[in-house]
Amino acid sequence: MRKIIHLDMDAFYAAVEQRDNPALRGRPVVVGGAPDGRGVVATCSYEARRFGIRSAMPASRAARLCPDAVFLRPRFDVYRRVSSRIQALFREYTSLVEPLSLDEAYLDVSDARAFRGSATLIAGDIRRRVRTDTGLTISAGVSYNKFLAKQASDLDKPDGLRLITPDQGPAFVATLPVGRFHGVGQATERRMLALGIRTGADLRRWTLPALQGAFGKRAQFYHDIARGVDRRPVQGTRVRKSLGAETTFPVDLREPADMVDALAVLAERVAASLNARGLLARTVTLKVKYADFDQISRSRTAREPFRSGAGILRQVEQMLAATEAGPRAVRLLGVTLSALESVSPAGGEQLGWEF
Amino acid sequence: MKIEISREALVPALQAVIGVVERRQTLPVLANVLVVADEAGLSLTTTDLEVELVARVDLQIEEGGQITVPARKLMDIVRNLPEGASITLTVDQGRAVVTAERSRYSLATLPATEFPTVEDIGTTEPVLLPQGNLPELIERTQFSMAVQDVRYYLNGLLLELEPKLLRAVATDGHRLALGELSGSVEVNNNQQVIVPRKGVQELLRLLDDSEDEVRLELGSNHMRVTLPGLRFTSKLIDGRFPDYQRVIPKVEDNVMLADRDTLRQALVRASILSNEKYRGVRFILDKDLLKIQSNNPEQEQADEELSVDYPGTPLEVGFNASYLLDAITVLDGQQVRMGLVDANSSCLLQDSEKQEYRYVVMPMRL
User: Fold this and answer.
1) Domain made up of B2-114: CATH architecture
2) Are A341 and A282 a contacting pair, CB within 8 Å?
C-alpha cells in the first residue's frame, strides 16, 4: 500500500497578498484579472469566498458579487519564490514530488525515513514548517492514492490535515457525488446523472462491460475509482513539453461570445500553470471540436513569448475567428502551450502595460 | 504609347518607387510598375496593396497610353545603360520595348486595368507642413512600434493632428515613444490615425530635411503624403490605439539628471555583460550617484559608477538596456532627465530642457 500526501496552499495568491500587506487581512481579496476587463479570478481569499466568489469566475462577475473586494493583479515572481521554498522543503522528505501548480503537489512518502515513515506525522511536520518559513498555511490530505489524498486535503480546508485510511476509502468514495471524481468533468457528470449515477455507490453498481458501453476507454478508470482504486503514480521528474486545458461543454456552444468566455477561462488556467512552472511558451494551439465531432487545431508561434492569460486569450480569440466556430456549433474548446522555455533567473521579467 | 526620356530623369523616379515592389507577390501584377503617359507627363506607380507610391516626371509625351512592366527588370536595365542615354519606351503587340542607342529590350506586360490603384481617399482637411521636422519626428518615435504583435494596433505609428500640433506615438507595450511638432500645423478638427509599420518605414525613406512643403491628407482608411514629384499613400490600421496618456507617469518622486553621452556610453558597456536576450541592467541610485550593474548567465559582472544630479531617495530599478539606449540615443541634448517612481513603475526619459520628445520605459524585475 502506498502512502501519498497531497499538499495544497490555502487561497495561495490571496494569502501571499494578505501576508505582505496587513491592510488586506480580514478583507475580501481577489487576485486575477481586472474587474473591468475580460480576466478571470485566479485566487480569492476566504473572506471573498463568502460572497460566492470562486476561482475561474470572470472578474467582472466577482466585482458585482462583492463591490468592496480588493482586486489585485498577480505577482507571479513573488509566488514563484514562495513556491520554490516550499517545494525544496517537500524534497527534504522524499524525491518523489509532483508539483501540480505553484501551490499544490503530490508527495509519495512510501519509502520516506522521517518519523519512521508515518505519512500523517510527515504531513503535520511539513504544515508546521511551511507556516514558520513562509507565514502561510497549507492543507494536507493523506491517503493510499492520489485521488483520495486530494479529496482528503479538501475536507478540512483551510489549515487542515485529514487522513483517509484504506479501510475508510471505499465508504468515502461511495458517498461522493460523481462530479467530485477525478476525470469527471461537466460533460461526463451530465451523462452520468442522466444514467442515474449520482454517487460513487451508484457508479460501483455498474459492471465493467456496462461502463465500457457507456464511456468507452474511460470505463476502466471509472470502474477502479468507484472502488477507491487509483493507480496513477506520483511522477517525480516529469519534463513538460506542453501544457494544455480543454473543456467539453454540457451544451454545444453557438454564440461566439460564449466561446470567447470559455477561452478566457482556459487561457487563464494554462497561464497559471505556465507561471507556476516558471515557464514561457512560444507556441499556442487552439483545438476546436465541432458538434459533429469534426476536430481541427490551429497553432501560432509568436516572436514575443506568451506569459499571461490576456496575451494567450488575444491570440486564440483571433485564431477562433478564423475557424467555422459560430456557423457551426462547438462541443469542445482546448488551449495548449508548447515550445516551452524557462524564465531565465538571470534574465528577469520585463514589465509591461495591458493594452 | 511612346515616350522619350533621359536615363537621368527615369532612374531617380524608378528608384523612388521601387521600394514597395516585393520580391514575392501574391498577385503577379504587383511585380510591375504602372506606367502612365498623358498630357500631364509621365507617372510611375508601384504598390504592395498596403503602400502605394507614385512618381511624376514632367515630360512632353509623344503618344499617350498606359501599361504595366516588370519593375525590377526595367529598373536594372535603365540603371545599367550608359550615362546620358536617351531612352525610348513603346508598346508593341503586348510587349514593352525599351530602346537606347543600339540596345533594345522587349519586356512582358500586363494590362494597366489589372493594376490596383488608390485614387480618392476621402480626405476631409489637407494639412501643409514643412518637410524639415517630419523625418525627425518619425525617426525618433518609430523604433518603439511593436513587431508582428497580435495587438495589431501596436504594429504601427499613431499620428494625431490637433490645432497647432502633430503628435507621433509608438509603443510595444513595454516602452513608449512620443514626439510632438508644434506651431506649423493648421487644423480645425482633431484627427487620429495609425500608420502601419511598412508605411512608416517607406515614408521615412522618401522624406528629407529640405524645407519643401509636404501636403498631408488623412482619410478614413488611408493616409496620403504629397511631396514634390512624389505621392505616398498608405492604408491605415483599423483599430483603436490604447490610451497612452495613462502610462505616462504624472508624478515623479525621484528625478535624475545625467550627462547624456556619459550615460549612453556606460549603458553600452554594461549591457555587454547582460543577458543577451533580455538585456537587463540594474540602476542603483543614491544621492548624486548612479551605479549600473549587470550580470550574465556565466556569472560575469559589470559595474559602472556615474556622478549625476540626484537629490532623491535611494532606489534600485532594473531595465532592459536596449530600451533605455534607444531613447537616449535619439535625444539630442547635453543632459538627459530621468523621472522615476519605484522599481515597479514606468520611468520617463526626456531632454533636461525640452519635452517635445518623451520616452516611457517599464522596468524589469531582476
Assistant:
1) Roll (3.10)
2) yes
